[in-house]
Amino acid sequence: MPDRTWVPPGPFDLHRTLGVLQRGPGDPAFAVRGGELWRASRTPQGPGTLRVAARPADGRVEAEAWGPGAAWLLEQLPELLGERDDPERLTARHRIVHEARRRHPGVRLARTGLVLESLIPSVLEQKVTSDEAYRAWRLLLQRHGEPAPGPWERMRVMPEPRGWALIPSWEWHRAGVDAKRSGAILRAVRAARRMEEAARMDLAEATRRLMAIPGIGPWTAAETLQRTLGAPDAITVGDLHLPKIIGYALTGRRGTTDEEMLDLLAPYEGQRHRAARLILLSGRVPPRRAPRFPVGDIARL
């Protein structure tokens, strides 16, 4: 059970920095307990569980880890917590961005250094509601993952690539995952080594590497690399809600398209994902006019 201490280079919000790694309530690979964050990962050295706790009294972050991947997780801890991230590179061009940064000065972009860990749940989130995707991730890890090392018995580590490849078609169906999404995941895990190499590339090269897999487009690549690389410019294009939120927050108008969103964020070139993240933290969203999109369940078909 090795441990490590890290001192942030500036203001630091542990929960908002690492919270983006959680895939919904009940995520078997992520948990919050008593203010501490727990994360179960499949590292290059094997499964590991990381516990991270902020100590505001002296400005430190403490971590300990279990399992074959423990040393790797602790070595990567500063990058995970955003040590390589530089929030000051963003210059606020809108009042709402300025205010969001003032209210949330400790938000950094996490860099996991792991591709499949973010790619697979991002594929599950394609073209479905968040609740459907979270349910699929939860069921697949509970049935096909392995118990996470360490003291928290309910946590699970996602399957290794071969484990994903061996999941039978009816198990994908039972989890509510259609053939298009499961097919994209299976193609990605068969090229697992090539996928993981993207963690050591720049954003443009990593995006091309991921999108070489049929079924992985710009939306999925951006959602993955925001977490894998902590990429400040990996703006999500093709999202149902994001352009409308960005457009409403910056202009007060409804119905913003992807192209219009990119125009609005052009002053933040190089930091567009960070700008969008701050806008989302502002809480300024267009009032709902239509009922929530109904949740489907292909497992019942």
Automatic annotation (TrEMBL):
Keywords: DNA damage, DNA repair. One of its GO terms (biological process) is DNA alkylation repair. GO terms for cellular component: cytoplasm; protein-DNA complex. GO terms for molecular function: alkylated DNA binding; DNA-3-methyladenine glycosylase activity; DNA-7-methylguanine glycosylase activity. Signal peptide: none annotated. Gene3D superfamilies: Hypothetical protein, domain 2. This is DNA-3-methyladenine glycosylase 2 family protein. The lineage of its organism: Bacteria, Bacillati, Actinomycetota, Actinomycetes, Kitasatosporales.
